[in-house]
Protein 1
Amino acid sequence: MFVYFVKRSFVALLVAITVSIVSFLLLHLSGDLAQSLAGPSASAADVAQVRTAYGLDRPIAVQYLDWAGRAIRGDFGESFFLKQPVFPIIAERLPVTMTLGISALLIALFVSIPLGIVAALRPNSWIDRLALTISVFGQALPSFWFGLLLMMLFGVTLRWLPVSGTGGWQYYVMPAITLSYYSIPAFMRLTRAGMMEVLASDYIRTARAKGLRTMTVLFKHALRNAIIPLVAVAAVQLGFALGGSIVIEAVFSLHGVGYLGWESISRADFPVVQAIVLILACFYIVLTLLADLLNAFLDPRIRVR
Amino acid sequence: MSALLEIRGLDVRIPLATGTLHPVRDVSLSVARGETLCIVGESGCGKSLTSLAIMNLLPKRAQRSASRLVFDGIDLTGLPERHMADVRGDRMAMIFQEPMTSLNPAYTIGNQLEEALLRHRKVARKAARDRAVYLLEKVGITAAGQRLAQYPHQLSGGLRQRVMIAMALMCGPRLIIADEPTTALDVTIQAEILRLLAALQREFHMAVVLITHDLGIVARIADRVAVMYAGQIVEIGPVKDIFTRPLHPYTQGLLRCIPIPGRTRPGEHLGSIPGMVPSLIGKIEGCAFRNRCPHAFPACTTTEVALVEVSGEHGYRCLLSPQASAANAAEMAAV
Amino acid sequence: MTVETYVDLANVLPTSAGSMFRRRMLGHTTFLVGAGILVVILAVALLAPLLAPHDPYAQELSRRLVPPVWDDGGSWTHPLGTDQLGRDYLSRLIYGSRISLLVGFSIMILSGIIGTSLGVVAGYFGGRIDLVINFIVTTRLAMPVILVALTVAALAGSSLRNVILVLGLLLWDRFAVVTRSATLQIRALDYVAAAQAVGCSTLRIVASEILPNVLNVIIIIATIEMANGILLAAALSFLGLGVPPPLPAWGAMIADGKQYMFFSPWVITIPGVALFTLVLGINLLGDGIRDLTAPENRS
């Protein structure tokens, strides 16, 4: 078991390194960085000057190794735009995105697990169909549009919540709901399928034969097993959500890491972008490792080899 | 002394898209305290469903009806589920066929054992733990204390079945229903488990309803036997009567199919019962066994055959008189 | 099987309970509705020049933000109103369908080719090749797609071609994972072993034995990725780095309308509904196909 995790961690490290290489290459090869930095109205001489000043005329491998060498020590360079070290800038915005991501995950779980359970208990009933409809609609809804609709309804018409910006918990409600809507269909399907499969199993029959109360059978015995795949998927979903929060943060002007990424792209502030990509990738990788750990923790059959 | 379990006219119906399945038809039997009743029959004869019907553990779509279903003085028909749940696991317990999948893989043996007791009795956790250890030892599991912390997947099939038996005994039930408890186990372990069940039954003075398709098991441990075919009880009586004077052609056929040490001559053909079980959907006209019965006659197709009791609790469901039936049996044995 | 595949297989495996007959019916309805929606939108896209009342690019600054016909101030000249530059909304909507469909199909095909190739190769050859491809897939999954797509779009310039390229080169992961699983299953079957024993070349085995049987899951994933591609392209356009103006991309229309949405809500509602309907149609089609071709339905 331990050996397995060491191997996984090693692979994870390789993945992180590869991600950084790929993003570095994409950044430097998709277009002329010097041109973007200098701006559209710069002359050829200006662009050449920018190129030398930022060391963009060196071979790409050299540039990467230079960056990587410093990144290992935590030095992600300096923001072109803000003239400050990159890492603290990102670190400052990180809590916002984390709050958003975790809130969205919690909302998704609170909605989909009960719905999935009820749908599994009464297949083809009206509530099962309702869950299915929510599922189908949720996957078709463009997230940014949904966010705007919520904004119009709760921010303007009802005036319950602030329309946009960063601040106290009220500023996270609509963004979190918008972000959660994407995960709800998958979570609900998994819970429903998992519960249906588990409820048909022999140990549930044993539990009922022992005279255990329905709630005990449902939650202690059934859900405990049905939830195992869901937990792992939820962890991975959180990883995706953190990476994809950029759109929601842009819609709601929530100043998190995603918003910073968007700003940096429009400002050609590439050290920041490179660092954000790497950090988000690392979050995802850590979360997948965590998902595996959770799997092992929840299913004794995997644990003891 | 009144019977522990009394069933009259038990029916199970399951509505399907193609019609109504009627897998348990007019089943009547009784079990006295401390007695072992074996229900025998081939696959699909309705014996498992009968046991599930008694416990009210049928699938949701199934409908159960009975003119009389009384256990230990409690009328089970129309009993609300929460009261039934109080009875289950406490006074009436069940052991299932597949020990490999009958235990929850996410919890320890100890947890699942103690849970069975804690649900029905207000005792301390320690008391439940002690009882679990006591019963594990009783079912022949060594190092019982350590076993409590183990998970089901760490035990073999035979051990798991012993755990299931211990779990059924946690609350000291008056009746144990065992649905083919040894079918999924090795032959050598089968014998051990059966011996164990018999010993426990004597010690705790429990009644046992054992469901099986193996006549060998029946011969070994039954006090009384009920033979089922196509959802009905076709013969019921004390084990000695059933084996020495079987009255229903199906029972006679079954007995011919197994070799009997001392009686079956080497090289002799074993019997078989040609044909197939009739469909259990909808009504069955006349006797359900008629198209496989070597002694069928025209009335068998039209008459609804009732269970007729002969001497001393021996009953059978056939139009032939006891004498004619016995004569048939002797004739077939001589062949 | 990695954890990520749970989500994908949960999407691919049939979920409806109930009798086989009921499932076929349900599959039929879902399939028909989805196909119907797609056919309608396809027709709209193809017949755009005939259906659109005005030129989608023609600006008329004197008639800015005219409301749709059902609000006061609206008229049948511009049934869905006009945008902030006076362009007819209905026409832009109709022409916008071309962009969404084109983007969706192209991304689906590009990512499908890449993903299926990787998945089938990984599943068929196994061993080290499988490990390498798994590594590639994991790397791709670790990258934040939108961020990377935005970056590339910003650097390479936002154009229809670049949007399709960058998303097509990023969205192949689900294809790869699912075709790999399917290939593994099929490879274990006897008739593949028979083909190998007879001495068929690898390419021939892949083409004639494996691909036809993987086709079922490919089609289902194709609908998922087409929908995904359309939504992501719309998100890119919304953020200003997707399909460039003045092309009438639905996502861009929503972005343009954002500042006016509180007073002229139709500016964002209408293109949003269009996007939603198209994606819904694609999803329903995929669900319908999945339910109809579930193994239990095959005799």
Protein 2
Amino acid sequence: MNIIVIGLGQTLRGDDAAGLEAVRLWQEKYPQTARTVRVELAELPGLTLLDLLEDMDAAILVDAVHASAPAGTLTRLGPDDLAAFTPGSGSAHGWGVAETLHLGRSLYPWLTDVRVTLIGIVGEQFATGAGLSPQVQAALAEAVERIEAEVRSLL
Amino acid sequence: MKNIEVPALARVEGEGGLYIGVKDGKAVEIRLDIYEPPRFFEGFLVGRFLQEVPDITARICGICPVAYQMSSVTALEAALGIEISPEVYALRRLMYCGEFIESHALHIYMLQAPDLLDVPSALDLAAVAPEVVKNALRMKRIGNEILKAIGGRSVHPVNACVGGWYRWPEADSIQALLPELEWALESAKEAVNWSLSLPYPDLEIDYEFVAIHHPEEYGVMRGDVWSSKGSQLPVQEYETRYLEEHVQHSNALHSHTVEGGHYLVGPLARLNLNHEQLMPEAKQALKETQLQLPLKNPYKSLIARAIELAHFYAEAIALVKSYNPTGPAHVQLKLKAGEGCGMSEAPRGLLYHRYKIDDQGRVQFARIVPPTAQNLPRIEADLFAIAPQLVKMKHETATLTAEHLVRAYDPCISCATHFLKLKVENRE
């Protein structure tokens, strides 16, 4: 089974780095599991996210999310939840995960066969140059365990 | 007419607002307000070692990092009096091909075509013309692959350095690009035909076109600065004719010629000034369009981009086939105090850099003139040209029309935020 774990976000935008950081920490803590799958740290992949999903059976995306829940809350969106995403932006740089997956599904039938799951970490500060908020920092250990459990459920 | 506020201009990079002041049914003031302050980069560079400059300046833009790398290494090599080898230069051309391919494929299909086809976004274009968008993504992807093969990653590639490259890419990884490039060249020729079929608004402007010109190659990294008004200057004299000034409403400087005129840089300027230097495949594609040059319609820069796509695929094919690096990947630097300037053609136009360095190779002064700063006054002037129609339109139509014109330039206001507010104010 071809599995990819993708950390998404921007290191320079506060909590937006949560997905990248969580995947890095997971690689450090569980190197043996990490070696069995493909791992990518993708800062702003935009449309190239579709290239990363090609030839994969399953993908676990880890990203910071906006939500009404407190910062540091972990969420999980399964394939059905992600399929229900509607694009909210048509901007040049607005190719977020939802828009890209939406575009991909309309163009590539193979994408419906890729089991995409998203582990979301609710963030609260996204200003340029801000670091991770204490709440998000504290949530990373649990995010690491979620990634590990998600990958193991697929192996 | 009451004030109009529009929440967002999509598909433009950077944060800005558009203000239109109307009196007696006429537009009396138009300002493209730019809030984004990317020029602090020139301050960041002071005190840095020169070898850091290519990778720092590359961070100014996620779509044209290669342009920043190439303009900076060219300028710093001039400051040190370094000559690079033909092999180093050829690989720089190949990497630049990758950037043009990525940027142009994105702009043609994802940013401007939806305007011409009257759909809200590329997502909607994918719904009505999935094959067009699928091909577009495949055409764009080969640009990413070139950058990755040479620079390790497709966004903000590394490997370019003052004096050459940190290392030669493996020949296998370069040769592997060939099949997709050959497919893409054929697709680009079809894209040129497709671009002719699009409905362009009528607008002809008597532009002064400015671009790098080289007699033996399509001007990208070396040559002189040519103007359609007849000026031909070596890069060292760029600043004697092309000046920048601060205007109150913009954090990006505005350029003008020494005579005070606006000028246009970018694909239309390059095609009009350099079509003789196109690769044979692109020249043939241009010939078959039966277009009369110079092209003066800003919306038709899409056609120029399509022709350039054919050029850069063809050039990339030739460069990949001849890739056989020998000798050192970079020149050993001998540091000395000096000053140098360099320029290259970013996908959206001429990008000029000038640096002063001390005898330890530390930057003492940096000057960067990006293409969009040169085009901003020109965009405002073009908006003035269509303002009589704008003020008579319904709010929504006026906004879309103004947005489309701005987008046709592919402005790279910055990579920070993504909207432009349109405010039309009646001063009566």
Protein 3
Amino acid sequence: MDKSKLLLSTILNSRLLTTGIILFLFVSLFGVVGGWFIDPEMADVGAGYPSQPPSWEHWLGTDQQGRDVLSDLLLGTPQTLKIGLIAAFVGVGIGTIFGFVGGYFGGKIDVLIRLLSDVFMTIPGLLILIVIASLLDIVSTTLLGFVIATFGWMGACRVTRAQVLTMRERAYVQVAKLNGVNDFEIIFKEMLPNLLPFIAASLTGATAGAVLASLGLSALGLGPQNEPSIGLTIYWALHYGALIRELWWWFMPPVVVMILLFLSLFLITAGLDQIANPRLKDKI
Amino acid sequence: MQPILDIKNLKVYYHTSQGPVKAVEDVSFSLEPGERMGLVGESGSGKSTIALALMKAHKYPANIESGDIIVDSINIVDLNEEEMRKTRLNNISMIPQGAMNSLNPVKRIKPQVIDALTDHGIKLRDKEEKFLSELMESVGLSKDVLKLYPHELSGGMKQRVCIAISISMKPKVIIADEPTSALDVIVQRQVMETLYEVQEQLGAACILIGHDMGLMAQFADKIGIMYAGKMVEFGSVSDIFKNPQHPYTRLLIDSLPDTSGKRDLIGIPGIPPSLLNLADGCSFCLRIGKKNTKKVPWVKVTAGHFIQKCLTCIDYGLRKKATTKRTRK
Amino acid sequence: MGSLLEAKQVSKEYISGTFIKKRNLALKPISFSISDDSPSITAIAGESGSGKTTFARVIAGILDKSSGSLRYKDKDINQMNSEDILSFKKEVQTIFQDPFEVYNPFYKVDHVLTTPIKKFGLAENKSDIDKMIISALEEVGLRPDETLGRYPHQLSGGQRQRIMVARAFLLRPKIIIADEPVSMVDASLRATILEEIKKLREIHNISVVYITHDLTTAYQVADNIIVLYKGQVVEAGDVENVINKPVHPYTQLLTDCVPRPDPDQKWSKTSGDITLESRIINGCICAFCNLNESVESDRKIYEFNKKQIVSCKVAEKKKICTNEDISAYFTKKK
């Protein structure tokens, strides 16, 4: 009861974290709620005259193929977020489990996990993703999320492993062992709660990374082609030379949404860092 | 003799969202050149806050509310940051707690010693070699140590390097904040002897901060006992050990283990009060379940021996003392 | 008369490095036992790196020994069935040095007390658990309403360490291994904790192994003491003998360096370097061994008198110890 109160007051006390969360909610709600008010057909090819500047009918104008930019954006933002969140949760999940197993049990399995994460770190992720994405015929947003996750777990793995290594030697883990607590409970009841801020920070960081990767892939034309996403919008904008033709209402809005999203994720990570970092926590 | 350090009615508060924490409340004492003083107290008694205030190294939300700190007839409370920077190391220097861990691990000892001097605009040029080897010799280290990295030194050697840095400008007052807290007994003795020697050579006044009464008895001429932000007793080392007047001092000395016969160990009951919004009156009464809300006067016992005399708790622990020395069969 | 806990020639070697193995013999073979007929308090003293904490952890079963055998109630630790292991884990308890680190910052202090009760099945329902905790806290002089329901950082170091004593006591152990229980507690609060530890023996018949670097508290708390240096026994026996009449030059140096809280008993003025490194002559820490016998090699232990054994050439004329169990030379309290 007072644990949740404490958590709430810690969150509210951190200005960075609250601003970040509000901004993130704003971006997500923009996509989710905004989608209720528009007609999905507006985002189809030929819904309006092509390349029209903003007007009462099309608030953010239309693109080369006559799609309403606002509708396209409202439908694409949740899809992009979905890719990011799937990749982040799967990646951080795998990374955290690997980190715990390696850090806690050590030995050969740890050597193997460390080797694996070091190898994945050195491989240029985008390059492999391009190869994988081009091998797949039809890419859905969910599939893209999983594909990106295969290159998004190393950070979480390293952070968790390092924390578990120091925590394993902590006296409270020793005391738990003396109290007859088994390994499984030590990991979940003694260690995991103290790692939550780190895991949350990894999650937001990984989300930003995954969104960026999905934008990169989509902009190269390797992303999901059948569902609207911000990456796809950028791909078409590049394809039709929106930048050179100064169709600012076409390429600016997705960029602004992405900037807001990254800003919010950055603020959340920084805020969580502040809470997780004991030196900053002990301010009088 | 003219005191080299004179602290008058010093008050240092931490301003928190819940109210002021009176970390140092109305503390006064003075030291003459060459005198060694021990400042004793539990954690949170304000002893380290005094040290930081003397260096003006205290950070927000700590603030010197009022009082004077006069070092060599300059009131450093009035100095600005630039003037204070020159005073540090030159007039008053500190060996902070855990100093030996503050040495830069990727630099050799020599540049770390010289850095402090160049910061104060001193250029040694051709005298450098001689100056440094003399400085090292004064703390009992060979000049070869200058060429080493911190990790190549033992804990005691690192602590002596820190002493060397702090005396490099021949300060008039040296403050040592628990200089031996992480060291083994043999090394502790050696570091304390080093500190003793350099202090005598320089003729500087020295304040040793700590909670080990044994070290205080070995090192200090005068002792100030801090309790809950106030100085409760001040006197010569023999006043404090042979004729303690304040109940807290008495209990502190009685609780010390010795090796001249087994006895029951008597601890100090209760825990120190929180300094947040601490009311006026006797703080020690709060610990032993008594109450005195009147302001406690600072009373002279004999020449140079003072206590915070609270009539409510002055006799506490007196009767117990008679039975303390009971030897078990 | 048998022994409750018996360590025979136990040693501990740390091996590090993946390809090039670095070996560090932290504890040389040592034999020691705790008898089951009268509870005892034994101090293990030494400086950092002396192997005292390693020794404590090995006999507590926290660290695996590298050689030798450890028996509890006449059963080898390595050949115990799960029931015996559980009783060993319950009856040999450890109190750690750092009263801050032993608490999981995520939980209230209650967590550390309720977990062992549940895990060892000491009480069934909530009210029994509460009763046990309250009586254990009162046993160590804490008021339950001032301690329970708080987070570790809301309590003082002294209170926290006493809760750890209460935790150990809760399990009704036969042996408590206290690893420097007061070194990180304010000097003014040490006496209370040490007195609780003495009470464990006097009232509850619990044997205590008290690990410390502080010879004065060792003298006040323990009956007997073992002084270690670089993983090896230097001197052992009754505290009166070892601390007040030390024979080995190293023990003499240690007792000499204790800052006595008496302004009339100041350290004698020494000249030059008093550290050990400068005192090692021909590989020995004392000036007496003029042999090429290095500290690293196995040294003989001499029986200086019935209650004091010394590993130094200074006692060469005395006979070599016949009993390898150090505790054979200890004073037994009835």
Protein 4
Amino acid sequence: MSEQTAVKRPVARKEMTKAQWTWKEMKRNKVAYAMLAPFMILFLIFTVFPVFLSMILSFTDFNLLEMPNWVGFDNYIHLFLDDDIFIIAVKNTLIFASVTGPASYLLSFLIAWFINELGPKIRSVVTLIFYAPSISGSVYTIWKTLFSSDAYGWVNGTLMELGIITSPILWFENADYVMPLCIAVALWVSLGTAFLAFIAGLQTVDKSLYEAAAVDGIKNRWQELWFITLPEMKPQLMFGAVLAITQSFGFGAVVTTLCGLPSVDYAAHTIMHHLDDYGGQRYEVGYASTIAVILFAIMLGSNFIVKKAISKVGQ
Amino acid sequence: MSKKLRTRGHKVVLNRSTGGDIGITILLTIMGAFMFLPMVYVVIQSLKPLDELWMFPPRFYVIRPTLSNFSDLFALMNDSWVPFSRYIFNTVFITAAGTVGNLLFASMAAYALSKLKFPGRNFMFGMILTSLMFHSTVNQVAHFIILSSFHWVDTYLAIIMPALAGTLGLYLMKQFMENSVSDAVLESARLDGASEFRTFWVIAMPMVKPAWLTLIIETFKNLWNTGASIYIHSEQLKTFNYAIQQIVSGGVARAGAGAAATVVMMIVPIVIFVINQSKIIETMGTSGMKD
């Protein structure tokens, strides 16, 4: 392709300034911009612009009703020094994300790897079993039925029947249980796109590599995994990591549905909930934007750190 | 070499110990049970008559299965203030418009990003990659302001327009095009005088059907599961999922209908995935060998 375009270009690049050349290239590629336009315009409006808008609003006291005033770093200072619930939310978010992110990632990969050698028919059934919760929307409310706070919930009923407890446990209203339960449910719905990407990635690893490795003295499946499969799958591993991290910060709705907002003693209150509280319910847009900016920074930061770490694998 | 080669079916299996096979099978069974049993329980609950739903001790199986929960659900639907067909129409309309639009816009953009070279390409793709690294709910407050300045709050557009620029589908489509659409084929179409758009539509698009399916599933699952949205106030514009949530939270008398509603809600994306999965696997099988 590059040779073809070189032929079409009548004036040599050397004879032009960089700006002139860029402009010429842009004109030559009008059709490319036209094809990108519908998507990119909406992308700029709904993804890029909101980030900058939030950053600006985070320095104001905007409340949707009155004209906003510039308040400098007041929102940030208040958030970190006076807002005790925010500090709880940061702690919970870090716990939640650092458990669900890596656990979901490992689970997705291990299951994909385990089922890779099954026959195609069984593999597609097993894939469906593991993938189904993630596409079934609000089906995770079944956990609320299973862990219902009365004796008719299956878990309470069974524990009482076995004589382990004498009265029902209020699972989702007990500060000791909400966090582990929400993490379990989050993991349950987390085997999504990354899981499918791993399944597909494992399928595309060149089979002859395994045969060659067996001849070269690879002794078992673990060595094969470490020396061939993982390095070959690095692109999927990277993609899966990005999805797992983003997802691990986005389980707010699951927690809200199961534990309510706010959850008991703020035991499962994450930054996402804090944002929801101020943005969606109190309409303190300026303050909510500050929370959004902090959350944004945490998400991007953890992505960059993890991507750096994965790029070191096999080096 | 006197290496013993184990076979499974007709395939030679290398370096596999029986102990490892057994261990993996046990682990997979445990994890499979954790994933699968709650889904089964949803179905079981929907088939339980009222007295079994409120029986102590609760059973993981149903003694006298009945479809009465489903008929109760339809009765409830007919009694609701806004006709239930309206909620279904809203969800179907939002899902269809958003999915088709995202498929079109994202495919065009993916083609340009993967097959054309132009200034700014890497920058644009970099922005799209960055967008995958944060969850869109951080933009929720800003979205509200933007949507209201367009007067799109409380219209279908509030849900559909942001969905049209979903980046995950674009990313998957772009990666797939890069690997499975050969530049030589596109070049020969251009030499035959096809316009760039025609090359995209007639040559490239039919070659990336698996990526369509992946994009469709991604967008579909998000839109189908749209529930109560802070952008929609009118009851007539609310979604099926929202209405279902209302029934589910309706208390003791509606527990059966609620379980039935959850089954209806989950069955659609699962069926769509099952149909698409076989196609994706089939196409993956052939696309894997080309390299």
